[in-house]
Amino acid sequence: MAVSPGYAFSVWRRNFALYRRTWKLNLLPNFFEPLLYLLSIGIGVGAYVSQMGGTRYVVFLAPGLVAVAAMNGASFEVTYNAYVRLNFEKTYESMLTTPIQPEDVLAGEILWAMTRATIYGGCFLLVVVAMGLAPPLRALLALPLIPLTGMLFAGLGIAFSLRIPSIDLFSFYFTLFLTPLFLFSDVFFPLEERLSGGWLRLAELLPLLHPVRLVRTAFAGSLSWQVAWDLGYVLAASALLLWIAARVTRRRLLG
Amino acid sequence: MIVEFRHVSKFFGSRRAVEDLDLEVPRGACFGLLGPNGAGKTTALKMLYGAALPSRGCVRVFGEDVSRHPRAVRARLGVTLQENALIEVLSPVENLRVFGRYHRLPEREIRARIEELLDFLELRSHASVPVAALSGGFQRRLAVALSLMNAPELLILDEPTTGLDPAVRLSLWHRIRELQAAGTTLVLTIHYMEEAQRLCDRLAILCDGRKVAEGAPAELIARHLAPQTLELELGEERAAALRQRLRGVRELRAGPRLMLFSEDAPALLDRVRSLERELRGVVVRPTNLEDLFLALTGTALEGAA
In this predicted complex, what is the ipTM? Predict the structure, then answer.
């Protein structure tokens, strides 16, 4: 059955109503996390690094952390939160007593995860601009990349969450998937200077690599063919993941 | 018919949850689905509102195939799930509003409906308190209120009163009866046989995914047992001896108690007295649904008195 935007929006509004009540508790830790990395690694460690990728280290690091904030904002929403809604709070079960269909639930959750990604990525982007690490106009160019990054990781996360039999498995997702992505996706150092040949081509599979490069390109204002490849990757991977997620959602929600 | 099940089966892998189920619920009826745990009641209800798809057969509600038109069907019905799915940090009013939006009701209608339901289910005293702080009975009433947001023509209740104290149960049934009086069709599962007997016009008893009986409570009792029951305590051997001599009398054993069913229990008692001199714990009473349930499913009910 096709997604109905109206019903998907009512799923989104449910999450928004809840978030309005709890945002103070949620926002602060998520907001501080990238800021702490920026201060410690970017400015602290950066003091010992003369240059990276042709710029000051903190300038190199900032765009990567924007993409990471978007990734984390979306990921928490579609992992722990979605799992609890599915298995403990019976939220989806109660939605399916109304005209809402599984596809609407999925669309609403993905939209909501993109919203969360935008809140966290957007806040951090403001900090980056305030610290003079990105020109305001170019930061504006990077802004739409944040929900796009959110969509990619929302698709990945929800396809995982709806399949796993136990909430404990999320530690694998975070520790063995998201953390390595965070460490090896051009955020802290340029992969192309450390890897060569086949390894470098293999690294192109890493989903976080593309949003990081896109944000960095936007900040630098340097357009190249790589932008098309990165954008294409993000859109195609999102489409594939959402297609898989739609199948899993239907199977999981309709007994 | 508001609800029609035609040869409906549901399998989960190789496990059979419901097999070849036929049901009909006319408009305005209160229809009860009874059965031991795992009999397939909840699965049958889920197929009724389209949250589970039949492996075989067809479920029609309001004359429409639920699998094909789930949105249209669900816009006209309400479901109270076995477990309350409430948003604990939000108040009853906010929960109701979220649910009204699930139905995409106009905001003005949502506001009006919330006002009605706060009164109807006596929620007004704590209308703005976070749900987490409310008692179990209050939360259950709110769960019922959610399922009424769209003023449904058909209300489905999955064990609406299990775990509630008697006063709360009574007042909830009172409301449900008012809904029926106003024309709402009801389909429900209950664990309390005495409530089922009092409330339901018609019952189907499920056992192991199959329907083992269907009809009005009194009619079912008369058909499968008899209107009156003679209950007494008797050891295994003496019960066997008695059985030999009372050929044709329907009976049921539950622990040390023997139940004998008859059109005329006092007369049966005289007969038993002539055969057994020492009788203990003798009770003559009307046959109830629990006797029937035990006779048909052979399983004692949790929570039954």
Answer: 0.92
Which stretches of chain A drop beneath a pLDDT of 70? none
Q: Quick one: B121 and B248 in the same domain?
A: no
**Contacting residues of B for A14, CB less than 8 Å apart:** 87, 98, 101-102
The Cα–Cα gap between B163 and A233 comes to: 53
Place of tokens 């059965």: B35
Q: Is B79 on the interface with A (CB under 8 A)?
A: yes
How many CB atoms sit inside 10 A of residue A252's CB?
Answer: 15
Q: What is the domain-level CATH number for residue B264?
A: 3.30.70
Same domain? B35 vs B182 = yes
pLDDT band at B299 (very low <50, low <70, confident <90, very high): low
Cβ-Cβ contacts under 8 Å for A65 (sequence gap 6 or more)? A34, A37, A38, A42, A124, A128, A187
| Closest by Cβ to A254, choosing from B51, B78, B99 | B51
pLDDT of residue B302: 42
pTM beyond 0.90: the answer is yes
- Does some domain include residue B111? yes
Q: How far apart are CA B96 and CA B78, in angstroms?
A: 13
Q: State mean pLDDT over B238-243.
A: 83
A3 is a domain residue: no
Domain that includes residue A85, residue range: 23-190+198-253
Q: Which domain holds residue B278?
A: 226-286
Domains held by chain A: number: 1
Q: Is A146 in CB contact (< 8 Å) with chain B?
A: no
* Mean pLDDT of the B149-178 span: 93
